[in-house]
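Handout, page 2. Input:
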Amino acid sequence: MVFALPYKRYAFLNITANIFYALFSTLAMVSIMPMISILFDETKNITTKPSFQNFSDYFSKDKISNYFDFFVSNKLDTEGPSATLSFMVVIIISLFLLKNLFNYLGLYFITYLRNGILKDLRNEIYKKTLSLPISFFSEKRKGDIIARISGDVNEVQTSFLSILQLIVKEPLTIVFAIVAMFLTSVKLTVFVFLFIPISGFIISAIGKKLKKHSENVQKEQGLFLSTLEETLSALKVIKGFNAEQRFTSKFKASTNRFFNFSNQLAHRQNLASPTSEFLGIVTIAILLWYGGSMVLIDKTLSGGAFIGFMGLAYQILTPAKAISKAMYSVKRGNAAAQRVLEVLETKSPLEDAHNAKVKQNFTKAITLENVSFKYDENLVLKNFSINIPKGKTIALVGQSGSGKSTIANLVTRFYDVTSGAIKIDEENIKDLTKHSLRNLLGLVTQDSILFNDTIKNNILVGKEDASDAEVIEALKIANAWEFVKDLSQGIHTNIGDSGNKLSGGQKQRLSIARAVLKSPPIMVLDEATSALDTESERLVQIALENMMKNRTSIVIAHRLSTIQNADNIIVLNKGEIVEQGKHDELIHKNGVYKKLVDMQSFV
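Output:
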């Protein structure tokens, strides 16, 4: 995984610690054998130290057994039984201490790996979320994206830890234990392993449908988080229409499905541990019968060796159970990883061209040449062409659905044209970097999009390094300083979630101040006053006029009183231009524009 590369040293240290953990786990268990042999007086009295002449001697059961017996015999003769027992106890304690020390170190290093991957993965998804086009989020629920960046990423992180255990720690523990078991008794070890394939088959059968159940859980989590997000965004509407019961029922239906899917998933996960433990105990029980007969009847195995072998056999069970759990976790993590990768691997149709230019300024005109656009199947704009010279104000009017806001979305390149071209100073905006294009634009939308922060920090979105004096000047131009100066903490006042501590007109004036501070040469105003009352509209209109001085402006207007001074008014109907001209000219034409004006009671 590419996200693990920056933390590969922690993976290496984790693997090293796990190797030593597996080694000392086996040695700790093997060290019990001579202790038991001393207690039951089963140690052979060997006075000559065995020699290890060939490499194969280090894997010879007889050679190793004779060396232990020589060591113990020598210790008993020189220091006595009490000192020998004490020495063996110290050895056993030291080996178990080393085993647990390396276990801790393995977990210590993997913590940095896991949390580092988690951090980078979340950062990458957030960055990707910001880079994706607006159209992506009209198809995806926001709650589902939140579920992916929180729950699914956590699941991937947990799964990644399981993979490391699966490939290093637990298998090595099993391998070392098996080597020690073979050295103790080949016959008994072969007998044990006759039962392992049966256990593996049963455990595999339990986990077959785990991935499917996990996908259902994760999808349903995204759904109820989406419902929650929509509820919080629309509380006024829900309460105003007494729709609490409807939304509660919708949320409960989702959480009930989540409850059922989670139960199905948990039941299969919970079945893994008792099943593997029961199968392990069955194996141990059969081992006791078979091994016991080797000790008591055949006399081919010592009691100490058999008890040590039993310890080694049981030591295999713990990592085997961990591997079975890790396999479930990996399957669950795979389902989560697919949901995360779906976002990360989504190709944005609005990526900058390979040789995209950085445009620093605006000198001549904005041109829309035969622009057509459709969201789905039906064209919203049809062969639309206009020219907007620098310093002029153009207004777009028409009924809802006529394509006015679409033009704003295309000029700002939130969407790309289906056909035709949009040019700034005769350069196609597709040939410019999106960053440099949007540096030339200021945007004020119908909905005042503000953040749960101070007034100052909301304004600084337009220009991060602006001074307090520049912020205040922008507020004055936007006709907002008159209410900001009276607030308890002035520009440092927190305005609440989405600016809900302020009125609609106040929020809109802050949005204008943000655009003013950015000071772009081109302004795009998308129905900036349509949601305001008459008094607020007047104050905002003054702010807009202040802002538009000496700038090129594209004004999308619902209230026609706000655009009477525009240099050119374009009347749209079903994506096509039906009239254009100055206000007085269009009134004299007595056409579509005149009807729109009359409908709004203007003379």
